[in-house]
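Q&A log
Question type: sequence-to-structure
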Amino acid sequence: MASQIGIELQAPSHFDFIAHNSAFRLNGSSSIAESSASAHKRRSEGVKNQARQSLTSLPTAADLFVPSLPGIPNLATHPTHPLTLYAGEIPSYPGEGKGGGDGDTGKDAKLFFMMAKARRAAGKQRLLFWFNGGPGCSSFDGSLMEVGPFRTVPASETESGKVEVKLVEGGWEEYATVVFIDQPPGTGFSYVPTNGYLHELDQGSAHLIKFLQNFYTIFPELKGIDTYLAGESFAGQYIPYFADAILKSSDLPDFPLKGLAIGNGWIDPIQQYPGYVDFAYEKGLIKKGTPEAEKMDAALEACQKSMEQYTDPFKTPSNIDHCGEVMDSVTSAYIQELNGKKVCMNVYDVRLVDDWPACGMNWPPDLSDVYTFLRRDDVITALHARDKETAWVECDNKVSAELHLRNSPAAGALLPGILEKGVPILMFAGTEDLICNYKGIERIVNSLNWDGQQGMGNATVDKWYLNDTQVGTWQSARGMQFAQVFESSHMVGFDVPQVTNDMIMRFMGVDLSLLPGLAAQSSSRLGDLERVGITIGAGAAAGMPLLKGGSTDWDAWYNIISALLILFILLSIVAIYFYFKRKGNLRRSRLGGFGLPRDINDDNNGDLAERIPLGSERVELDDIERAERYNEDYLDQDNSRKRKGKGKERYEDDHDHGVKQGGETVFSLGDEDEDR
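Response status: OK
Response body:
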């Protein structure tokens, strides 16, 4: 791929993984990317001048409405998953000296958003703004691969022969209106002029506040409802800055900020660099007393010496010199040859391997289709993404490089003040992520001081169950909540969407008992405390329990009941037949063996039993068998899909979580803690 792109590849280090190099992400050559960019630029030229002239006038909600997308011709009237969708660009320039790009060029900055209106209401409305990290990574990661209503459909599976999207269950828009934002300007479909790139996090906050002012002007019905900020990865820096700015802003008085949710976030380097060592030992990635352990411990010691100069959290940077080597010391032990190919650990999911030196940048496997979909001309038009002159990329290197953060201390310093203002915070972490791992998040939670106390105190760690299966742990104290999510990666929603759906509804206090007609719900509980659970799927509105994959159990029960009813009718008819036959025989015996006259047409009809439609019975029995085999078949198909990930393979078995490739153990992760 290096020869295709024309970039010299080096082993990625530390934030090279968070600020994904878009060159690694592309599955085509540079000429393909350039031709796509040129086509998009030519398409933009016709509307650019008109758009620039109308910056002072905001688009209307009608201008931003999205009636359809390739694969879903009528979103709002979809038979099982109706969705109201808006998308487009909203001006975000906050004014001279506030947000980078001063002068005429800076005034052109716009943030792109895509909003999915809540499909159901449980007591009250809720609004959630989602941000992906990077810095410079598009929130289409969230909407198309994590917590949104869509997933891509490969071209090989569509009638059009092009990548399309489909609606899926488990998205957070089920009970909250979710707004996915590409920010800072220049990220994803957001527009930034050449001299308008941002350099500090407070500039990003200023752009967001201006965006929100304009957003509420366009959608006044959303102003004043309970609002949450959520995201993942480097959004662990964005979100505390945004929350702090909103709480202090006179431009957004009485803003109803009800909570922050940060998943596998990069928040506090002082706590998270040592977390790499904790994680490596606890997961068995590195064994104590080995040369690899000595190398890792030495890297941590050098890092801690660099950290000694930072005693004031408000002067601690988000990235500390000489500390990236700590994570490198963990991953370097897993660079090896496999079947003649150099591979390495996927730093976003340690259960996976990837081609070296990508080490996770080719992941997740849906990404190539996301690229293809978001570069379709009809998709760009449908999403009203008019101003961006270059083709969409997942993570923009220019945005990342310009955001140097020289005067932006690490966001962890802001968390105590936010908590003390009564804003709850949920930290959640997939347990298979290395780069922003749960051990580092745990260190952050336990080190914070707020309300006169440190950390979570004596708060118990509850086991978290969904449908009687433990899916993680949950701890709460004084407004802070910390959730570990089992069997999930850096992108938790990609792996376990139903679990994250339950998680966010629990955090937002969604009371599903307020939903009319909800007869069947899945159970969700912490320890022994059970609450009203969730129902995920097309049948949820009618109160139907669901099978994996989004179809309802009612179909299976309907077939079973139908089969039993037919069987009952059959037995009844047979019983009646033999009853009358026996009665007839008795009567004939009494009449000297002479039977009653028969209609001649009965000869054509044959015996009653032969006229029963056995084919219908066979269909019903087939349906029952399919229902009984559903879970087993689904798991087989799911495992098959996971094995199709390009350039990576799962390396765990049912017993020791070791990598198996042709009978050879590649990565050994040691023993898992069975009683988590």
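Response note: Residues 553-590 form the longest helix (38 residues).
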